[in-house]
Design goal:
Layout (H helix, E strand, L loop, with lengths): L4 H37 L2 H20 L5 H22 L8
Helix pairs in contact: 1-2, 1-3, 2-3
Length: 98
């Protein structure tokens, strides 16, 4: 237990922030998970919409300081990379260069 009034207040503030941050973090994780599932299922239209929501949630979490901006950028990059690979696979084999 804290020994001073200020430490007690800090403890209350930290708990409030933890709960607030948890909402933004879990929301971002949920949208990223849905986007990955849509990509894996091969539903590219749904994946496109899910990625849009995931990017928005990641940006919001980074803006609020819940995750670092580079962490958000890395996750968005990996999502887009997976989506583009799925797009490439769905369009069929590439024509040979001549």
């Amino acid at each position: 237990m804290p020994n001073t009034k200020s430490a007690l207040k800090r403890m209350r503030q930290a708990e409030k922030r933890r709960l607030r941050n948890r909402f933004y973090r879990s929301t971002a994780r949920t949208y990223v998970k849905r986007a990955r599932a849509a990509i894996a299922a091969g539903d590219l239209e749904a994946a496109k919409e899910a990625i849009k929501r995931a990017v928005s949630a990641l940006d919001r979490a980074a803006e609020k300081g819940v995750i670092h901006k580079n962490n958000a950028a890395r996750r968005k990059s990996r999502l887009m990379k997976a989506f583009n690979e799925a797009l490439r696979a769905a369009s069929g084999p590439a024509a040979p260069a001549s």
